[in-house]
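Record 1 of the preview.
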Amino acid sequence: ALVGHLHEDTWDSRLPFLAANRRTVREVQELEHKARRQDVLVDDELIYAFYESQLPAEVCNGTAFERWYRNASRENPKLLFLTREELMRHEAAGITTQAYPKTLRLGGVDCAAAYLHEPGDPRDGVSVTVPIFALNQVSEERCEWLVPGMLKDKVQALLKTLHQRPRSRLVPLPATAEKMTEALCQPETFGHGSLMDALLKLVREATQLPVQRNDIKVDMLPAHHFMHLRVVDEHGRQLGQGRNLGALKAELGSKARGAFQALAQLKIKDIARSAAEPATPEVAAAATDRARRVPAVDPAKVSASPGGKTSSAEQRHTSWDFGELPELMEIRKGGQTLIGFPALIDDGDAVRIEVFDEPEVAQARHRAGLRRLFALQIKDALKYLEKNLPGLQAMGVAYMNVGKSDSGGGGGTLDELKAQILDLAMDRAFLTDPLPADAAAFKVRVDEGRGRLTLIANEIARQAGTILTEFAAAQRKLKDGKPPADVASDVQQQLQRLVPKNFLSSTPYAQLQHFPRYLKAVQLRLDKLRADPARDAAKFAELRPQDQRFWRLVAERKGVQDARLQEVRWLLEELRVSFFAQ
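->
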């Protein structure tokens, strides 16, 4: 009974070995969670046996024990202290802080990591606590890698999902996974870029087969092979949790941006009073591979007017009167450094400066803000164009059917179309890379763009007219041809997705040039359908699963942009052309 009290935490005593042993047991239990195995900590019987071997026979109650221990521990201060080695059945040499770190750097911030081996528990695997202000800077690619100690099992699980032919060239899988993991865990590789891309390269080299990304069935993996993220506010309260980073960003992204911009606002006000150093190349590179570092700047120029009294975050500008605009800004929080991305924001009849936590968002907002600032310099030229775009009235009639619902409402207006044409013309005339970063470069670009704006706007108007003409023709053919319901539904969806109300502003310019061809292909499909419905049905059956899978992935992203998905989007349109129009 005495031994049981010593081990089961029911002894009401402050003897030092009790707390130390409990702490050591917890450490070994943590090792079990990291290693995802339950056979590291020794059985209770062995711990009982340890205590019994140390106690004299005459010590049989609490009073006698404490008297004996105080005397005996004077000669042996470590009496009854259990070591990790005594509590472990075998070595756990691979369970190091390097393999299972206590913190992970996500979004430029050191985030606490915890480990749990409890299949079915939402936190099973590695769970990382992310502060809300850093959420939008967390990279999905970095999350794929987990931690070095968990990578081998994930690699092996991924290899198991391969088809038999490539998999047979990788047996035995445990040995292959170990070898590949060793290569993936090299400092220059681990955590950089996509794990899937790095693994595919190794698989192709090992099998000498053209294995593709979709040959590895990521969705077949157990949950613990995906990082669990716990998003908290500044007080540590949980705001959201899960393994789908895209869904977390969709749910909490605006709140995360607000928290980040609150920090950035303080930074802008601080640097209005005293100059801060620009981001170092090391920090900039860690923040994003896509952000281009500019020459050293004085960030105070971004936030202070010449009088230096008010920050630009609180100012509205109708001309470039705020000095040089850097691409990166350091923001310090709790001893850690975040990277912010300053941008001009369209404020209607002026612009203002804000700092964003995502380079893609900053870039998009900055282009819109810069477009507005250019427009403010050429008001007369824009007024002339608004009245003199070629074919505008005819386009307006066709545009009335764009985005129109079955109930007959909701079509596009002439003003909406005109605004899109002029915005795109402004982009093509003024927003060529590299974008101006100071007043002098801005002035040069104003002069350059003014001279070519009319020609560009007229060309875009003609292109929009062609697209709308082909769209109307496809709609008429769909209505008059009365195809089978499944084909009609597919074509209608294709047309709605190709030409929504904002088709000019939401589509890359290079892709717009293909729209007439895509729309002609729709018409050809409807023509060929009458002559050979069986061929259309066979091709549609082949296309449909890919098309549905793509749009399901788009829906799961909940508005979060993905360059790879956009590439697939246009590949699917080309596939439709080859299936139905050739």
